[in-house]
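Repro:
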Amino acid sequence: MAQPQVSAKKQQGEEVIAFSSHKCARLTNWVELQQQYTSYKNNLQQLAERIGNVEQETEEHKLVLETLKPLPESRKCFRMINGVLVERTVKDVLPALQTNSDGLKKVLDELVKQYKRQQEEMEKWKKKNNVQVVQQ
């Protein structure tokens, strides 16, 4: 006996998921599963964007630190604080930049862990609900 399959036409750029089990034969279940899948994908996309932003900010901090370290501590430099450009010395700025850089690295590590957890959760959900992604 063949299992019923539920699928849908995809619009350009969208992914469609197909379900092949008796549990998912009803349209309401299909809609709920489609919404849950979309939610997982959106959450992963948001996390990926946040990771990209933090990575970029971390790289900027790294470049500034590499630029300032060889300079004399008494040399003046400028730093943007809450949208205001303030004059400081390299000696004043380096510790704050290093602290910020370390904090960004911790945030990045946590975001990557969150992304992996979310991805694993989605894979478990797909297996549990017998969901297959159909890409055309």
